[in-house]
Amino acid sequence: MVAFHASALDGVARNPALPTPLLLRLLTAGGGPPRHALQRAGLPEQAVAVILAHPNPGTRIDFAMSARAEPAQRAWLADDPSPKVRAALAYGPEWQDPRTAVVPLPDDVCARLLNDPDPSVQAALLDSPQLVPSFLASLVMHRDSAARRNAARAWEILTPGERSALLADPEPEVRRAAALWECRRDARVTTELLRDPTYAAEVARRGLLHRADAERRVAQRADLTALAENPSLPADLVERLAVDPDEAVRLAVSLRPELDEARRMAIDFTVGDLDRGGGVRWVRDGLADPDVLRRAATSAHPLLQRAAARSPHLPPDLLRLLARTEDPVVENRLGIHHPDTPEEVLMRVYARLGGTFSAWMAETHPRFPRKGLAARYAHHPDGKYRRLAVRDPAATPALIEQLSHDPEVWTRQAAAGDPRLPLRRLRQALHVPELASSAGANPALPEEEMAAVLDRACISA
Fold first, then answer.
1. Of 261, 289, 337, 417, whose CB has the highest number of CB atoms within 10 Å?
2. Could you tell me the pTM of the whole model?
3. Using CA atoms, how far apart are residues 99 and 88, in angstroms rounded to an integer?
C-alpha cells in the first residue's frame, strides 16, 4: 500500500459520514482495521459484532480500550479467548481529555475480570483508574490479598467493621494499605508508620500527629516539606517552619488552609513560572466546594489561584476574577477545565502555546471564537493564525480552497478537512501525502470516493 493511501484510509476511518456498509467493509481488513474505525462513537451493532469476532487480537484490544464505546459493548470481551484482550478490557481506556468522562464497566463485569484465571487480567483490573469506590469497597473480604489491599482505596465509604477487618488482615501488605488511611485519624498508627522510611514522608504529610512525633521530626529536619502540609501540625511548629531556611518548606507552609490572607502573604516564598499548584491538596479535594474555591481563587497566592483554576465549578464571578490574573498557568487551566472560559482567554492560550496540548484544548473549547476569524486572519503572516480562518462559518469555498494551498501544513490540513472545500480540490487532496488523512475525514467526501480509498488499500468488498 502506498503511504498516502494508508493516510487516506486512516482519515476515512474517522470520517463522521462513513456509511455503515463501508464501515463494515473497513472492519474486515486483513491486517486489522485502523484504530479510528474501532474507536468511533456510536458504532452500530453489526460493526460491534464484526469487531468481537475479528481474528486479529490487536483489533479486539483496540476496541477494548475505546473510550467512546458503550461499556455494555466492550463488556462482551470479558469472555474473549485471549488474556491480552481481557487484560486490555480490564484496564480500560487510556483517556487524556479532562472534559470527557469515561463510563466504567458494570460492577458485575469487573467482578468476573477480577476472578479471571489469568493473573494478568486481575492485575490490569486492579491498576485501572476507572474502578468506582462501590466496587472497590466490595473487595474487603475477597479471597485475594491484592484485591483486599485495593479495597482500602475506598476507605472513606467503608463501614467501621470493614475498616477493622482490613487493619487486622492476615496479610501485611493489606494491613499496611489500611494503616496508611487510618493514620489520618489515629495518632498511634501514625507513630508506628513513621518508623518505616518507605512511608515516612507520606505519613508526615497526612497522619494525625502526636506532638512529640512532630517535634522530633522538626528537630531532625526529617521530611519538613511534607510535614509543613500536615493539618494536625501544632500552630507553634507551623510558625517555626514559616521562617525555615529551606524555601520549599516555607512555600508549603504558605499554602496551609487555616492561614488568613495577611499571614499567608507575610511568608517569604517564591513561586516559579511553571509551578502549577497541583500539590495543594485541600483545594484539589474541594474543587466542587464553593467555600474552598472562593478562598483559593480570591487569594493573592499564585498557587492557590492555579489550583482553583482546575475546577469546572467556578461561579461566574470567580471565573472572571481568575481570567484577569494574567497568569499563563491559570489561563491554561481555565481553557482546559472550565466550560465558560472567556473567548479572550482561549485566544491568548492559543496564541502563546500553538501546537501544544493546552493550545489544542483551547482551540477545541466550545467557546473558542469563530465569527470574524476569516476577515481577521486569512492573510495573517503567521500560519497558525491563518488556520483559524477555516473555523469561521462565513469563510467562502474559495477561501477554503486558497487555504488548502497555504505554505503552513497545519493550515492546509485544516482546509482539506473542511466540508466547504470544493469537490475538485478535495479529490486532489486525497492524493497529497500530508493532506490525505484530513481529506479522507472530510464529511463532504462522496461515498464513491471513500469506497475508492478502500479499493486502493486492497480492502475487498
1. 417
2. 0.89
3. 23
